[in-house]
Specification:
Radius of gyration: 21 Å
Helix content: over 70%
Strand content: under 5%
Number of domains: 1
Number of helices: 6
Number of strands: 0
Shape: elongated
Order of helices and strands: HHHHHH
């Protein structure tokens, strides 16, 4: 098995775990609103924290690390890849926000509104869909950028033309 195939396998597996966690957690948060028994609240909190800390967060780290390695292994320095990276940045931001909610949600008197569940799940699904569309479609964006801006190491050639002649 080649290194690229192994990286892709690790990357896709980690993405499935990470994205699955981000999609399911808003629904678990909503469940908190309907529980009053302290033992049930504690069990839900433990379960949600386990998904976030034991599954989603390590998977996010592995997905980002293996994805970065894939970019360099495949030399995928294209515009669609940079748009994908921006969408992954949005996924990271959502991950952090979900962690913040998890920290504060199980304090006494807190609840999680239905609209938040729909918004959180929809946002996760929308970001994941945009990443899939970019990766599977690999759209060709022709922005007519200068060659030095679209070529790895291209900035160096720009400075070479500016260097004074001896």
């Amino acid at each position: 098995m080649s290194l690229v195939v192994l990286l892709k396998l690790v990357h896709v597996t980690a993405l499935c775990l990470w994205c699955g966690g981000l999609v399911i957690l808003p629904t678990l948060f909503r469940k908190r609103t309907h529980l009053r028994d302290k033992e049930e609240l504690y069990e839900l909190q433990r379960f949600a924290r386990a998904i976030y800390i034991v599954i989603a967060s390590p998977a996010a780290f592995i997905a980002v690390f293996s994805g970065t390695a894939l970019v360099f292994a495949r030399e995928a320095f294209t515009i669609w890849m940079f748009l994908k990276l921006a969408a992954v940045g949005a996924l990271v931001g959502l991950h952090v926000r979900i962690g913040f909610v998890l920290i504060h949600l199980f304090e006494p008197g807190r609840s999680y509104a239905f609209w938040r569940q729909i918004a959180g799940t929809g946002l996760a699904a929308g970001i994941i869909s945009s990443i899939l569309a970019l990766v599977l479609g690999k759209p060709d964006f022709d922005l007519h950028l200068p060659v030095w801006l679209t070529t790895p190491g291209g900035l160096q050639s720009l400075f070479e033309t500016m260097r004074p002649m001896p």
